[in-house]
């Protein structure tokens, strides 16, 4: 009987000690969160990461990616270009609405992969700037939440957004090369009817690819800036009770962001299809041999220009675009139709007027 009493007292003492440790942990956690938010501006760091790594304030990112696109590179090795890229980054921010942001000095450029193949300025592709990592300097104790792994995820999404902007820029260049000839199309005579038809098909294909790329960019940026961010802010306000909750809520936010960009493991096949379509946009640009070169403002000038466009490559781009779009559609039919993120939500935006339902499989070069 006495032994049972001793055991009961011992268990009660252990429970009291554990409870006191738990109370102490909760107190220290809540004090730490208040210190992070009030003394170390944790919320401001979240906003800055959204602004820069997720390109929420897009004007600086547009300037930066355009500068990368048009810059004349002096070196081919990735690590040799870092000082140049850092200069472009700082210049882009100074010329944007982020000029007076006090956190801009925390940004720095680094090489993500030392094994990156030599850079080719003559052949810009979708992955030409994948070696660029955008870092964000933080100090302890903010590093408890903004860990190196979390910052790596931010940088991975930033690289993906650069790819999107490269595709958009490429299609903008294509349009600049084509639109100067539009007023000549209606003036061509029957002798040049075939050339006019080819030209119209090229313009139509550009519109199709551009619709996909621009819709993808708008979907990704709006989901990152609005939907997942709103969820994150709600969770920070209502679900965080201790430091473990804070770290968990932040990682859920980053996981959602990866899913939005189709960068998660379960969306690998979807990501591959999207990547190949984005590459179509850059390949399309390479078809236009002379770009905005000199031409004669007459029918013959139009014919000469079209003759220099690699039509066989355009047809191949159309084939690749259709194949990957069909595969995406098949994935969409198999995917869940609920939830705020995922292929179903993106496809709804892409096919809002039923355009792709009618366009799939249509050979615009068969006429």
Automatic annotation (TrEMBL):
Transmembrane feature ranges = none
Per UniProt, subcellular location reads as:
Cytoplasm, Cytoskeleton, Microtubule organizing center
Q: Name one GO cellular component term.
A: gamma-tubulin complex
Task: Kindly report the protein's main subcellular placement as a broad class.
Answer: cytoplasm
Read off the Pfam families from this record: GCP_C_terminal
Q: Name one GO biological process term.
A: spindle assembly
Which GO molecular-function terms appear in the entry?
A: gamma-tubulin binding; microtubule minus-end binding
Q: Which UniProt keywords apply?
A: Cytoplasm, Cytoskeleton, Microtubule
Q: Gamma tubulin complex component C-terminal domain: which residues?
A: 42-356
Q: What does this protein do?
A: Component of the gamma-tubulin ring complex (gTuRC) which mediates microtubule nucleation.
The entry sums up its family as follows: Belongs to the TUBGCP family.
UniProt cross-references to PANTHER family, sorted A to Z: GAMMA TUBULIN COMPLEX PROTEIN, GAMMA-TUBULIN COMPLEX COMPONENT 6
Query: Any idea what this protein is called?
Result: Gamma-tubulin complex component
């Amino acid at each position: 009987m006495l032994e049972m009493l001793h055991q009961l007292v011992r268990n009660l003492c252990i429970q009291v000690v554990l409870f006191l440790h738990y109370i102490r942990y909760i107190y220290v956690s809540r004090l730490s969160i208040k210190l992070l938010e009030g003394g170390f501006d944790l919320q401001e760091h979240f906003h800055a990461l959204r602004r820069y790594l997720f390109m929420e304030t897009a004007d600086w990112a547009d300037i930066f990616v355009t500068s990368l696109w048009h810059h004349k590179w002096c070196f081919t090795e990735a690590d040799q270009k870092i000082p140049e890229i850092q200069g472009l980054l700082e210049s882009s921010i100074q010329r944007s609405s982020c000029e007076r942001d006090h956190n801009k000095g925390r940004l720095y450029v680094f090489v993500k992969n030392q094994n990156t193949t030599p850079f080719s300025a003559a052949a810009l592709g979708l992955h030409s700037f994948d070696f660029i990592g955008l870092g964000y300097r933080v100090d302890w104790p903010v590093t408890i939440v903004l860990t190196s792994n979390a910052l790596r995820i931010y940088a991975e999404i930033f690289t993906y957004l650069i790819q999107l902007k490269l595709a958009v820029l490429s299609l903008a260049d294509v349009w600049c090369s084509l639109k100067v000839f539009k007023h000549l199309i209606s003036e061509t005579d029957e002798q040049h009817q075939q050339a006019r038809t080819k030209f119209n098909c090229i313009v139509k294909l550009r519109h199709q690819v551009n619709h996909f790329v621009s819709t993808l960019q708008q979907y990704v940026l709006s989901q990152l800036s609005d939907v997942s961010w709103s969820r994150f802010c709600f969770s920070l306000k209502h679900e965080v009770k201790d430091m473990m909750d804070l770290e968990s809520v932040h990682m859920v936010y980053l996981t959602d962001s990866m899913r939005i960009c189709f960068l998660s493991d379960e969306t690998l096949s979807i990501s591959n299809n999207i990547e190949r379509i984005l590459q179509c946009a850059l390949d399309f640009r390479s078809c236009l041999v002379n770009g905005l070169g000199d031409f004669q403002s007459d029918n013959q000038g139009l014919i000469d220009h079209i003759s220099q466009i690699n039509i066989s490559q355009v047809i191949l781009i159309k084939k690749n675009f259709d194949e990957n779009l069909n595969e995406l559609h098949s994935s969409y039919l198999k995917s869940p139709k609920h939830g705020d993120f995922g292929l179903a939500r993106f496809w709804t935006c892409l096919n809002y007027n039923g355009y792709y339902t009618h366009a799939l499989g249509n050979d615009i070069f068969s006429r």
